[in-house]
Amino acid sequence: MKRKLKDMLAAFVYFLYEKGILHNRIRVHSIDETIDELLRTEKSMVRFGDGEIVMIKGVDLMLQKASPEIGEGLAGILAYPYDDLIVTIPDIFDTLADHHAASRRFWRDHLLFCRRTYEKYCNPDRIYYSTFVSRCYYFAQDRSRCDGWFAKIRKIWENRDIVIVEGAKTHNGVGNDLFDSAAGIERIICPPKDAYGALPAILAECLHYGRDRLFLLSVGVAAKFLALELFQKGYRALDIGNLDMEYEWYVRGASGKIPLAKHEVIGEEANREAGYHEYLEQIKVWLN
Question: In total, how many domains does the chain have?
Fold first, then answer.
């Protein structure tokens, strides 16, 4: 009953904003506009999902404990202080008509509790970009556009030497062709949990590379801070979050969220047993 009442309240409040009865001041570019900006420019990107927003409020995530330091740092990045560092947030403020029912319910509930956080920390003079650039399959009621989105996304690293900075379980591109358009792939493997504490070591490994490398980051909350550090040092870094997981669901034509076996493989021996030999060859350093 409590859940039903919450959902009804969230739907009613969202209706008031959607119809303009309450004023929404937060502006977000579309997925296409976000991808086009990444293709057209050499800008870096930090992405905020629901997890980063609740962490600003001091809530722990499954893979990262909250702290005042992390919360304050995230709030500072969310304020969008740099022109060439794209900040993305969920494109959920004007309409959820393009979402399937479960996604609409999730994001209405999220805004019921977190809208004030967005309003407090988002820069009113900025138009943000869409976090769904890396989560462009699951949410969609009409998935016919996913072919075009993923085709354009893969062009971002076409013929580029990339460095994937990821958790030990993530396996970006393993078992699929997401990064086949890249000229070369190297990997820095990070702790699967509480990677924020390993940021100095992760950054030090990244700085061994030249500025011609494109960094793709999948290390949860730590990726926000790492992207900022690399950007400030003249690198291009894109926080891609769970893009690989969305791509896997897209390739498989999944109707909903499904687990991926590769996310249960951790450690050199287990990866060898799984047959991930090319993945192991790409790894330049393991950080525990």
Answer: 1
* Six token digits for residue 82: 């740099």
Give the span between the Cα atoms of 69 and 266, in whole angstroms.
29
Token match 């909250």: residue?
66
pLDDT digits (tens, 9 = 90+) for 175-231: 999 999 999 999 999 999 999 999 999 999 999 999 999 999 999 999 999 999 999
Paired with 187 in beta bridges are: 164, 283
Give the neighbor-by-neighbor strand order of the sheet with 236-239: 129-130, 85-89, 44-47, 236-239, 214-218, 161-167, 184-190, 283-286
95-121 pLDDT tens trace: 999 999 999 999 999 999 999 999 999
- Amino acid type, 251: V
The tokens describing 20, both together, are 């303009």
Q: Which residue has the tokens 């407090």?
A: 120
What global pTM score does this model have? 0.97
Note down the domain range covering 245: 2-286
- 198: DSSP letter: G
CA distance 258 to 261: 10
